[in-house]
Sequence to fold (110 residues):
Amino acid sequence: MKRLIEKEMLLLGAPTGRLGYAQMVCAIELIMNGSRVISTTHELYPQVAALCGTKPARIERNVREEIRAIWDYGNQERLDSMFYNRDKYPPGNKEFLYTIAKHLEQQIAL
Fold:
């Protein structure tokens, strides 16, 4: 599953040399392994932080910065196909992570 997530992140144009990249992959993997929507602040970030050896607040910031980089410099056509009514401003962390996770789950189901 991790390889599929990393492939999608590369297709989106995610800069791989940043901490947010690995943390985002980990977060999406946790979302896809779970069966329900969870609180990003109280459940997801602490889980990712424990796996990555850092603090939840850093996970939140790094993911937000990674999303901003993807939104500004990534594959615009692919983003347009995933995020309808795309605005100038990127979606929030939770919306972005769950949209990517659901997109990948649909690809697996096909």
